[in-house]
Amino acid sequence: MNEFELKYGCNPNQKPSKIYMADGSELPIEILCGRPGYINFLDAFNSW
Fold this sequence. Notes:
- By secondary structure, the protein is α+β, with helices and mostly antiparallel strands.
- It has a domain at 1-25.
- The protein has 1 helix and 2 strands.
- The chain has a two-stranded antiparallel sheet.
- The longest helix is centred in the C-terminal third of the chain and has 10 residues, at 38-47.
- The chain is globular.
C-alpha cells in the first residue's frame, strides 16, 4: 500500500487527508480492520 486515505471525523463534507511515503515506497504500517482517521494514527504512534 503506497498511500492510505484517512477518515475525516465530524466533517464528512471535507476532502479527506491521506498518509504516504515521500519517496513513493510502501507504508511501514498494516491496517488490520476499519478505516482509521488522523487522530487514530496519532494515538497509535504516541502509544508506540
